[in-house]
Design brief:
Blueprint lengths: L14 E11 L20 E12 L21 E7 L5 E6 L6 E7 L4 E9 L2 E10 L7 E10 L2 E5 L3 E3 L4 E2 L1 E5 L6 E5 L2 E2 L1 E2 L3 E3 L4 E3 L10 E10 L7 E8 L67 E4 L6 E4 L2
Length: 325
């Protein structure tokens, strides 16, 4: 299935190659060597077909991961089914190359044109498949044949060459050949990305970071997309993040009250200036209701919020009233 309709951009094809060796032998005469075998190509004679894993021919774009059940085989491969078929397509012999430990020996008839099929799987998913013809084997004949298992899965990415700081961009994905279409995304090797390199969600939406490393005006990032069930089919896309870093804060707020001296819009409390940047209790908006002879709210007036309390003292000829200060 295709996860999007974006036109695929194909890289090189990954191939997994098995090496087939076919030797004609008759019953128990195998022990005396192939050169001792006689008789024609028919007459019920049988041949021994040995299949083993050869080098993986993977392109740099494909980046196959190895280290699975068999050396040189992508790690996700759990079975490699080998089958020998007659001209009518009937299965004559077969087995699992992984389960057999990397070498599989099959007995087939001689003097008959045969076909050798191979299918590599990850669970129920088919990842590679291929077939090759086996011309009739003659008496005493040895032959080496390469069986190439080509991709049964295709993944392509389409991404913009650049993206400005903080502006999300979409990466189009074209995936076919898998039932499970779950994808894992990485930014510079970090699954899902992070604040330093940008983040990417499950749909392929990449959001660049809010800023660049100091002293730079661009940054190259590599987006990697890999099928969860078949990581060796991963593809990568490069994006250059561009833009100027935000201007550094210019607020000089020595007392930490949110107001700067001089005032600046980058200050936490706004652009109003602090008339005393050494005292956090003195700033615009502060109460100036204390009779202390100080302009606590930086409005140019002193103690304008102070309200005195009526008082009276003395008696008789000494009685007086007034307001406390």
């Amino acid at each position: 299935m295709n996860t999007t309709t974006a036109p695929p951009r194909r890289g090189g094809r990954q191939t997994m190659t098995t090496l087939l060796e076919a030797c004609r032998t008759v019953a128990l005469l195998l022990a005396v060597g192939l050169s001792a075998c006689g008789g024609g190509g028919g007459g019920g004679s049988t041949a021994s077909v040995t299949v083993r894993v050869g080098p993986v021919a993977a392109s740099g774009v494909h980046g196959a991961a190895v280290g699975g059940a068999l050396p040189g085989v992508p790690a996700e491969v759990t079975a490699i089914d080998i089958a020998v078929r007659d001209p009518a397509g009937a299965r004559l012999a077969g087995g699992d190359l992984v389960a057999s430990g990397g070498t599989l020996t099959l007995t087939v008839p001689t003097g008959v044109s045969l076909a050798l099929d191979g299918t590599a799987r990850a669970g129920s998913e088919t990842l590679f498949r291929g077939t090759t013809a086996l011309p009739p084997l003659g008496p005493g004949e040895r032959r080496h044949v390469a069986l190439t298992l080509a991709d049964a899965v295709a993944l392509a990415l389409e991404a913009p060459a650049s993206a400005p700081l903080g502006a999300p961009v979409a990466v189009a994905v074209d995936l076919s050949g898998l039932q499970d279409t779950t994808l894992r995304w990485y930014v510079n090797g970090v699954e899902g990305g992070n604040a330093a390199v940008g983040t990417i969600d499950a749909s392929g939406r990449y959001t660049p970071p809010a800023s660049l490393p100091a002293g730079t005006d661009s940054m190259a990032v590599t987006l990697r997309c890999e099928p969860a069930v078949a990581p060796s089919f991963a593809r990568e896309a490069a994006i250059t993040v561009t833009g100027a870093n935000p201007a550094p804060p210019t607020c000089h707020d020595l007392d930490g009250d949110g107001y700067g001296s001089p005032g600046d819009a980058t200050c936490a409390a706004g652009a109003a200036p602090d008339c005393d940047d050494t005292d956090a209790a003195i700033h615009p908006g502060a109460s100036d209701a204390t009779c202390d002879g100080v302009d606590d709210n930086c409005d140019g007036a002193v103690d304008e919020g102070y309200v005195g309390s009526p008082t009276a003292c003395g008696t008789g000829a000494c009685a007086a009233t007034g307001v406390t200060s």
